[in-house]
Each structure stands twice: as C-alpha cells, then as structure tokens.
Design a protein that fits this description.
It contains 20 helices and 23 strands. Helices cover about 35% and strands about 20% of the residues. By secondary structure, the protein is α+β, with helices and mostly antiparallel strands. The structure holds flavin-adenine dinucleotide (FAD). The site of flavin-adenine dinucleotide (FAD) has 38 residues, from α1, β2 and α12.
Length: about 550
C-alpha cells in the first residue's frame, strides 16, 4: 500500500481529504501543505444531504461541529423567478411517497394538478421551510420518521458510505467554509496529520512522468507515494505539472463568474430559513445561504452578458441597504472537469478535479465522492492502471451527470426576458439530454429513464425540476385512469395533516440551533457582536453556559 500521502491545498477539499483519509487509512503518513498567503476560494457553504455521512464517518456529532462552523440546516432549495410568470417552487431532500405502485407526482397529475402546487401537495418539507422550522425536535429526533432510527445522533452509524446510502436524508447543512476548514484542520492535526504552512514552488517529475516530490519555499523538498491536488481552480499538480487537460462545459453552462458578499444579520429577530434560495436575475441567478449569524450571498452570472461592475451593481440593488457595508468578492469560475482526475501518482480532489456552477450545491459533494472513491480505489504496492481507470470513470460519471442535470434547469425554462435567458433556452444541448426532455415532457422522469450512473441525484429531483419549471405532461398516466383513487387521496390528506402537525410542533430553526450551541458547552472563541446588541453580555452568557454542569 502507498505509505505516504502529500496533500497540497488547505481549503475545504484539502482538509476534508486529510481528515477522511486519516480515519480510513491506518499506518499511512499524511502531510498537508498549504500556502498561508494564497487564499481559499472562500465560498461553498451550502451542501448536499449526503454530507451527513461524511461527519458520521468521522464520528462527529452535530453539537460538536455545527456551533464551531456557525452551521445551520438546509432542507431544500427554493427556486424563485425561474419562470416567466415568477413564483417559486421547492426542490426538497425528500422522495415522493408511493401509492399503489405509483409516485405521488403521478397521482398529482391525475388528481390535483389544477388545484394545488405539486411541491406542497407531495412533500412536507415546503411547509417546514415557509415556517422556518428545524428538522429536529429539541430532544434531537428528526422529523422524518423514515430516518429517525437510521441516523440518530449518538447511535452507531449503520453505514457512512455514499455507495451504501439507502435513505434520502431529509436535510443537509449550511456552514461557514473558512470555519469548517479550521475545524477539520484541528481535527486532523490532533490525529496525526502533519501540516506544512508553505508555498509549493516546483513539482518535480520522475522519468515516467509521475511526481517524485514537491519543492516548498521554506521547507525544501517533500516527497510522497501519492499526491493529492487540492489547489483549487489552478490545478497546480494535475493540470500545470502533469499537463492533464481540462474539459470545459461552457458549451452548455454559460455562467462563468460570481460576485459574493457576506451579510451579517440578527438571527434572533430575523429567524433562519432552513433552505438555500436560488433567485433568477438578469444574467444568471443568486444564492442566499442563511448561517447562524450571517447570510452568504452571491450572484452567479455569465460574463458574456454582464460585466463585473454591472453584476455587482445589479446584485447590490437587489440586496438593498443590508449589504451596503459589505465588501464584494469577485470570482472567476472554471466550469468543467479535468479529463482524468487521477494521473500517475496524482489525484485531484475539489475544484482542481471539476466544478459545475453551484446551482445544486454539488462542489462539496464532488469532494466527498472523490475522497470516498479514492479510499475504495486506494493503491496497493503498485498503482494499477485498471483501478485508476475505474476511479476516473466513476468521478467523470458523477460530474457529467450533474452537468446534464444542471443543463436541464436552463434548457426547459420559459424565461426569455433578457439576452441571457434567451441564450440559455437556445443552447444546443447534447442529444441524450434533448431526447430525455422530449420523453419527460410526456412522461415524468422515473428511475428507469434517468441517468443510472451515480451522480447524487435521483429521479425524483428530475421530476421536481420538470414540474417546477412548468413542464407537466399533458395527460396523467393512462394506467391510473381505471385505478381507485382512494389511497392516493388519503395520501394527499396525510401530507397536508402531517405538514400542519410538524409546523405546529417542531421548534424554529433559530430555537433549535441556539439550543445546540448551548449544548456544545465549549469555550467561546469570540463574541459575535452582530448577533446581539450587547456582545459583552453574550460573552458572559456563553461563559456561564460553558461551565461544566
Ligand atoms: P480552494 O478553496 O481554492 O483552496 C485551494 C488551496 O490551495 C488553498 O489552501 C491555497 O492556499 C492552496 N494552494 C494553492 N496554490 C498553492 C501552492 N503553490 N502551494 C501551497 N498551497 C497552495 N460548493 C458547494 O458544495 N456548495 C456551494 O454552495 C458552493 N458554492 C460555490 C460558489 C462559487 C462562486 C464557487 C466558485 C464555488 C462554490 N462551491 C460550492 C464549490 C466550493 O467552494 C469548493 O468545492 C470548495 O471550496 C473546495 O475548494 P478547494 O479546496 O478545491 O479550493
């Protein structure tokens, strides 16, 4: 087995990789090299529901890490103004119920299409989002009975691997990416990962083209058996040193730029929305990610249609006075994937491997997937080309699958009010996507007619996007015509009753997270003046709370 791993880069991908590999690979020496003066990307704060498995695998419970990262819950993405007529719909972390062999979405087409919005009819999560509820009761129980005994905090985890993931966990998280990297750095270094704060100046190759060592500015050469490139969009090892080409997705995904702002908010008076919002703007869309203490916001746009200054001006006008004092961070995005994420003895994880725009929050999911597959494909004494090929195919399937899913978000929208929206509607999509859309306009997506390669999204997500963007098949399934509707009507009544019950019994997300922070009983690292008028009083409160019981 490879005995020493050198990770270059200390952003989310570097520290997620270090902490996971530390746990997974016994007897392997792990070094992480990070240039203190080269900033991390500083965004990437909404996640995908499988992230729960990552923390479970590390043995970290929510009360341990969430308060340290100002984390909050995410139950869904709310899409706003993605249609000509405006309006919104939720894409929740929740599967459709099945009734007499058919999904609630199929029954909705038959029984409810002209009466109620599909998302509120089929899922309980939209009502929880509107009411800013927490997905957990104060005693820690998760609202969704299907997973209650599956992943209870404190229980032994039945499985923590994407490959075995059988349930749809009903929530993901929002967190401060910088604080998460700090937390995972502390976690990993306490468990034996060596950190070198230095800049890599050179990547030295062997005759066979593999990496022999890296050369750092102040600490000289560092060698290893396997190198993990977590240097972000620059792809210092994989693209620059090993010259592995990058495949751009700009033919179908036009957005290549973003402007991000962090807006402090008083969560006590404002409450906390347990969802990410993706609001369509003139040349792209903007995200809103509520954390405990601030909003992460950003406008993802296409530079073909908007300059940097125009984008910032439009976004500031949209945000209003609350963002007046906030500094804008402009980011150029490299959209696509490195042809092979694993080349010779170098594996790219994170932005160096691939990135599609953050519309469905998949950047961190790609990292988690890349790491888990690296463990599954970890080399023995020699690097085996067949195993490397399998890794590369698995990673490419995941990224390409998400690319197609995001392409769907644009190519079926009916917005045509600006040159950007006219352009995205007319994009020449790949034939397999066009064929699928043609079918899904007549029959809702299901497990048999959506991409079977693992890419994190199930068929229900495709169906939600088609219905949310207004593509209802003209008729319901003929097979339902002769069927008795009793059970389906009962199911719709139950969704409504259960939504009302949950809204009236679950605590607000603010209440629950405040409770979790109290439970954390940690030394406060710093007062958070924007949360309360009197920061010194908060400091005293936290110190009092952190006294051992
Ligand atoms: P970076 O954060 O760029 O880190 C690179 C590291 O490499 C740094 O530590 C740097 O110091 C180091 N480095 C570079 N050069 C050298 C050198 N020569 N020597 C030593 N060290 C070096 N993902 C999500 O899951 N959800 C989201 O909501 C989301 N939103 C996003 C929004 C935008 C606009 C963008 C661009 C991305 C978003 N992502 C999101 C993706 C997410 O931000 C990344 O996947 C994640 O932050 C990982 O980045 P990284 O660690 O690969 O790279």
């Amino acid at each position: 087995m490879a005995k020493s791993i050198v990770i270059v880069g200390g952003g989310s991908s570097g520290w997620m990789t270090a902490s996971y590999l530390r746990k997974a690979l016994k007897g392997v020496d792990i070094t992480l090299v990070e240039a203190p003066h080269i900033k991390t990307i500083g965004v990437g704060e909404a996640t995908f529901s499988t992230i729960k498995l990552f923390f479970d695998y590390l043995g970290l419970e929510e009360h341990e890490w969430m308060p340290r990262c100002n984390a909050a819950y995410k139950l869904a993405i709310k899409f706003v103004n993605w249609r000509k007529q405006g309006g919104h719909f939720y894409h929740p972390f929740q599967r459709y119920d099945m009734v007499d062999g058919y999904s609630s979405a199929e029954w909705w087409l038959k029984l409810k299409r002209n009466q109620e919005a599909f998302d509120y009819s089929c899922f309980t999560i939209p009502a929880l989002c509107d009411a800013k509820r927490s997905p957990r009761y104060l005693d820690g129980r998760v609202f969704d009975e299907k997973v209650q005994n599956y992943f209870a905090d404190g229980d032994r985890v039945p499985n923590a691997f994407l490959a075995e993931h059988a349930v749809q966990y009903p929530y993901a998280y929002h967190f401060d990416a910088g604080l998460l990297a700090n937390f995972l750095e502390e976690h990993s270094t306490q468990r034996g990962v060596r950190k070198v704060a230095d800049e890599v100046m050179e990547v030295a190759l062997k005759e066979d083209g593999s990496i022999s060592h890296i050369v750092t500015k102040n600490n000289g050469p560092i060698s290893g058996d396997l190198f993990v490139d977590c240097t972000g969009f620059r792809g210092l090892l994989i693209n620059q040193a090993l010259k592995e080409p990058f495949i751009s997705f700009s033919d179908v995904l036009l957005n290549d730029s973003a402007v991000a702002l962090q807006v402090p908010v008083d969560v006590r008076s404002r409450g906390m929305e347990p969802f990410t919002t993706a609001t369509a703007l003139s040349a792209g869309w903007c995200w809103n990610i509520p954390l405990y203490g601030r909003l992460g916001t950003g406008y993802v746009y296409s530079s073909q249609f908007l300059s940097k200054d125009e984008a910032e001006a439009e976004f500031r006008a949209y945000l209003g006075p609350m963002a007046d004092e906030c500094k804008a961070n402009h980011i150029k995005m490299r959209i696509g994937r490195t042809r092979n994420s694993w080349v010779k003895n170098c594996v790219a994880i994170g932005l160096s491997s691939g990135f599609v725009e953050p519309l469905e929050s998949t950047g961190i999911f790609f990292i988690q997937h890349g790491i888990e597959e690296l463990v599954n494909h970890f080399p023995g004494a020699e690097i085996d080309e067949a195993v490397v090929r399998s890794y590369n195919q698995t990673v490419a399937h995941a990224i390409d699958g998400v690319k197609d899913f995001l392409t769907l978000h644009y190519c079926v929208t009916d917005r045509d009010d600006t040159p950007f929206w006219q352009a995205v509607r007319n994009i020449k999509v790949p034939d397999h996507v066009a064929e699928s859309v043609e079918l899904w306009n007549r029959r809702l997506p299901n497990a048999k007619n959506t991409n079977p390669a693992y890419h994190g999204f199930e068929s229900y997500s495709y169906s939600v996007m088609m219905l949310g963007l207004g593509h209802e098949p003209a008729t319901s399934l003929p097979a339902l015509d002769g069927m008795d509707d009793t059970n389906a009507l009962e199911m719709f009544r139950n969704v409504k009753k259960r939504s009302e019950y949950l809204v009236s019994t679950l605590p607000s997300q603010f209440e629950y997270l405040t409770h979790v922070r109290q439970r954390a009983r940690r030394e406060p690292v710093a007062p958070e003046p924007y949360l309360y008028d009197d920061a010194s009083q908060l400091w005293r409160e936290l110190v009092a709370l952190n006294q051992p019981a």
